[in-house]
Amino acid sequence: MKFISFSMILFIACLISVASCTSDDDVEIVTLKVNHYKQSGNALMPNQFLLVQEEAAIDGDDWYFFYSGIEGFDYELGYVYTLKVEKEIIGNPMADGGSINYKLIEEIGKEKVASEISFEILLSRTYDDSFFEPFFTKTDHSTFKLLDGTQIDCANLCDELTEKLAVKEAITGVFQHSENNSLELTALK
């Protein structure tokens, strides 16, 4: 009898403990607009990141770095997307984990950007003239790729790009979309 009573008390204590646990997670449905190109940046390491606008910021001038992924979303360079997503704020994230998770609910729109539209991508930067951070790689004498693997067609600017890379200069590229999910470099800044 004592064993049953102790077991019953332990069982009730466990139920109360589980029932009293509240989730710190908060979920809401939001609309995101995703830009037609990624921008260079650094989270845990250098990479290319989506540029997004959320809710009231949509169709404004400012785009924000999006360091998270969107579960179920397959991004394609050269398109502006409007998405309905589930945004889950993690109340107690792991030390090296993100504090927000996104999950695609619906792709509301996908618009191809005209190939003559120009845009800038940071290709490298320097810090205090002592640290150089490139956001692209040179795979052979005239082939360049962004860190996410996007091919750069540098045409007549390959030599100038190679020189700037060799002297570890801060570089911004002006691009247009070209065939096969690559980018055409039209100017260097």
Automatic annotation (TrEMBL):
The lineage of its organism: Bacteria, Pseudomonadati, Bacteroidota, Flavobacteriia, Flavobacteriales. The keyword Signal applies. Keywords: Signal. Residues 34-110 form the DUF4377 domain. InterPro entries: DUF4377 (IPR025485). Residues 1-19 form the signal peptide. This is DUF4377 domain-containing protein. Pfam families: DUF4377.
